[in-house]
Amino acid sequence: MSVSLHEGEPGHHLQESFINTQKNIPAFRRYIEDRKNSDSPSRFPLYTAYIEGWALYSEYLGLELGLFKDPYFRLGRLSEEICRACRLVVDTGIHAFGWSREKGVNYLLEHTSYNIKNIENEIDRYITWPGEVCSYKIGELKIKELRKRAEKELGNKFYIKDFHDVILRNQGPLTLLEKQVNIYIQQYRQQ
Known about the structure:
The protein is an all-alpha fold and 191 residues long. The protein has one domain (2-189). Helices cover 71% and strands 0% of the residues. The protein contains ten helices and no strands. The protein is globular. It starts with a helix and ends with a helix.
């Protein structure tokens, strides 16, 4: 269930499909998931905190929708949360504390349900993309913070679909997302 929410609906699939239908956004900004990282820095940036933040927030929506009632789905969600926490430890260990690839692999083997092939692929990604793992959580926390602010300031004028529309129309950094949410709050307050 967690992977379905993260990668499918309302996660990346919805996010990418939605942005691709927006005619007022130039093509180079609409296609956010090309993942040809070898072209860096000669391409436009992916705002990982925004992209992956939405996907983690989508998993949270599954909780709100009651989609984790089945014990198997709850176990899967908790397993993913543990894996993400461990990924944060490994990303920090490698880039701030000089961990070796082997130490990162062993840490994930000991603390997660990932298999060795998955772990090796993950570790290689962390080594080549410092802070990417951290950006997932930063994005999720920012979206939740913005939602809480909008709910508090708008009260009964808060409408979750409109909030999600604001979030999905953004494809830039979290600073831009925050500005857009602030505009949304001001517009709805005036109604």
